[in-house]
Every structure is written in C-alpha cells, then in structure tokens.
Amino acid sequence: MGKRGITLVELLIALFIISALSGTIAFIFVSLLKTWDSQNKRFGARLESSIALDTLIHDLRETLSVTDAQNRTISIWFRDADLDGNQDSNEVVTFNWDGVSGSSLTRTQTISKMIANNISNFQLNYFDSNDIELPSPITLQSERDKIKLITITISSSKDAETLTFRSNARLRNR
Question: Is 127 exposed, middle or buried (0-12, 13-18, 19+ CB in 10 A)?
Fold first, then answer.
C-alpha cells in the first residue's frame, strides 16, 4: 500500500534513452572536433606560407643587390648594416628550398631559420625593367643587376590539400 517505485523495465528504458542521448552527443562532439582540427591545420599551413611569402617580399623590396638567382634559391645583399658600402657576410640573406616535396623553406642570415614547412613547390622567376623574363639560373652579376621584378610561387601541401600563393616583388633600392 502506497509503495511506489520503478520497475526493472522502466529502469532499462531510462538507461537506454540516456545511453542513446550520450552516444549522439559524443558522435556530434567527435565530428565537430575532427572538423575543427582539419580547419585548424589548413589555417596553420595557409598562415605559415603567407608569412613566408610576406617575409620574402619585404626582404626583396629592401635589397641592395641580388648575389645569387636560381629557380629555388635567391641570395640578396639585404642591408648595409655597418654603412661601409661593402657587402659583408652577415648582410647577405638566402632563401632556399631543396626541391624535395614536404621539406622546409629556409631563410639564412648568418644562421638558418625555417620559415615555412611542408613546401611542395617554391619557384622564383626573374624579370628585367621591360618585364622580360630572364633565364634562370643567372650566373653573371651583370645579368643579376638587370633584375627588377621577381615572381614568387609557394605551394604548401598538408593532408592531401595543396595551397598555392603567388606574388611579385619589385626591387626598389637598386
């Protein structure tokens, strides 16, 4: 009389409903986490390549002289830090990619620093003041002195997706 409780069947039904709701919430959470992780990696690769391109363009615009001009490597006399008019080794900056897909793009000025990872392509094209492309590599300094515009292409691959950035740098301080 007056004893009220739940039956075993009611308890099992409640547990089933709670389990189904928990499973659905967990599935949605895991799906959103995977999407967030994928977008975060994509954004990271995009940001890294974009920063590398901006760094390269900035340095090229400030260059005093191009000292090496190849398809995947460029060395520049960046600044005359001691104002002596002579090119010293600590004033030369080199950007280099070894041509191996997935390797790093490096910037070397006394020490080497990785500026972008997972690079699948890095291409430099050189143009004179008439926008005529100069054949690369440019071995003679007299030919390198004709460079007025450089087109840069950086491709970064991450998780079967390739992002390509392309820009131009006009050399101003020459």
Answer: middle
